[in-house]
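Sanity check

After download, print the first record. It should look like this:
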Amino acid sequence: QVQLVESGGGLAQPGGSLRLSCAASGSIFSINAMTWYRQAPGKQRELVAAITSGGNTNYADSVKGRFTISGDFAKNTVYLQMNSLKQEDTAVYYCNADVRRQTGPYYTSYNYWGLGTQVTVSS
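Expected structure tokens:
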């Protein structure tokens, strides 16, 4: 099995910063990509930022220029640096990983989710 554990959430003031971390552990051969999603109350879960093992990144338009995703795939860890936070960034942030696992001579990719970490932006 594979576990994803997010950390770093909390309360921040508008204009402030937070840094989220997500560490994957378990039966991992390699990780293809890691993604941050968020879900605000009453809204659908949305992609925030993604990074591949090759270093390609993708951001939601709403966070471009404010958030930065980075990863240490040797440590199966991804980070989300969030600057210039706005009240509308308030949400539960979830980590997602596309994990390659090895079973005998075979490799199969699976998708895993963390339990989420709350980010609240309020004055």
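If your output differs, re-run the checksum step. Summary of this record's structure: The two ends are 40 Å apart (CA to CA).
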